[in-house]
Structures are given as structure tokens and as C-alpha cells.
Amino acid sequence: MPKKILIIGSGIAGISSSLKLKSFGLESTIIDKGNFIGGRIGTRDIKSKDNSNYFFHGAQFFTAKSDSFQKIVQNGINKGYIKEYGRFSPPRYRGYKSMRDFLINLSHNLSITQNVRVTNLKPHNEKISVLNDRSNIWKIYDAVISTLPAPQNQELIKKFVTLNKTLKTASYDACIALMFSFNKKPKNIPFFFDYYNQRGILSWMAAGSNLCFWTAHTKGAFSNKNINKDEILLKDEIFQEIEKSVYQLEPNLKINFHSLHIWKYAKVTKVCSGVQIDPKFPIAIAGDFMEGPNIESAFSSGEKAAELIFERLRELN
Description:
317 residues, 17 strands
């Protein structure tokens, strides 16, 4: 009889879990509370009569060091939905035309349902009972992988004590992302500004689908302190920092504010220590909090969770 497997979260960890399970001959269903796949690999689109432009307001790029992820990236390059980003060493990559294109192509054979929130999980014999906000009926699954950020996962899987101990060891920095555009295409501005080792509140600033559409991220210390601050005050403070860089290079550019986005759990500052799968039940956790603060780490974590679930299901049989 086919196994019924649930994956919570349609970010890169959830997608990689489902892909790995499929390679073992196991089908799974991904559900996510958001409107779009991707999680913190966020894209905001601006549509016009002729085309669409994009703010990359979450992760800006990804690298590929492992054999598994290199194959994913190379396949995307060959099919045209991944492109190299700049001239960095090691190489950096982006989804084309947006990060969402990368994830849509990667997951096109997977079963994904958006706008459904899992509200509770509990053991049920040697299976997992799941409650969501759409049906309000407990459903039984042979296995579950949860890829929510560690603090959200803690609340959801509180009945699985060992996994909760693992999740409590992770920590995050918040991030405030400000999206803005220029009134015309700049001539003297690079596509990426790195402020990481400089004074000030900005971590970096990067162009989106072209040099007119930009996202700036603030540093962790500033973000942690100010995530509940009035958004108008935040916008003004961040704009002042942006203008210092922009007007030095092109003083005649006009900057237009688009929007703010708050990432409460943006960057892992301490990865989890502890087990990734419950010692008794077929439930595992996956995400960058298990491996490190980047897309490839989240992808690898998802694959490992799928491997652990596969082995657990074999044991239970």
C-alpha cells in the first residue's frame, strides 16, 4: 500500500525533501500557509503592460558546492531557469527570471497546496496525526517532515520532546527588507553593494531583475532591535543610508519607495545540535537551522530528512 507522507513548508527544504522521497519511489504532499512557494526565497513582482519586473526581497543568490545541488543548478542552467549571478568566486546563481521560476521548475512534478496552515501534530500509534485550518479534521499520515523555521516548529511539534530539544538550540537574526526603484536606469551604479564589514545599518543592497528595481537588507543587530518600530520611521532611516551610496555615484537619480518586508527569522546565527528525526515516530525536521544559513544548506537538510524518513518507514514495515 502506498505511504501517505506530509511535508510542511514549500521552501527549498520542503521541495528537496519531496524530490528525494520521489527518488525512493515515495510520493508526498507539501502544504504551506503562504500564497506562493519559496518561503524566504522571496520574489515580489511589478507588472506593467509590456512585462514584469522583480524585487528579490529574500535570498539574493545561491551557491552550489555539493554534487547533488550542482546537478540541480546545472539542469536549471541547461533549461534556462537558472543563470549565473555576477562574476564571483565561488560562482553565485539566481533563478531566471525570478527565484520563483527556479522553484516552480524544480517542483513542477510535486504535489503542493498553498494557503493551508498545519495547526497541530501528535503521535498516533506508529504514525502521525495532523490537524490543519482548512478541514479541522485530524488526518493520519505515515510520516511527516516539517520545514518551518525552528521557533515556529517548536510550537507545532511540542508533543515530540526530543525534536523540540533540537529546535531550541537554534537562533536567528531578523531582517528588514526595503524595496525601492529608480526613476531611470542608473549608469554608474554596480548591481550589488556589500556593507557587511562597514559601519551603518545596511547589510547589502542588490538589484532585482534589472538596475531599476532594488532591495536593501538591514544588519541583524539593527533588525532585531527595530522589527516592531513604526514602518514610516523605518523607511526614512533606511532610505537615508541608501541615499548615501546612491547619490555619491549618481546624484540626479530619484528613489521611489515600494514596500517593506520584515523577516522575523531571516538568518540562522546558530545551527541546531541534536537529532533530526524523532527516536520513535516517523517525523523529521529540515531547514537551514540544521545545516547553515544558505539555500544549499536548506536543500541538503531536506534531502537528509527524506533519507531518515525512508529508513524509518522501512524499519516500521
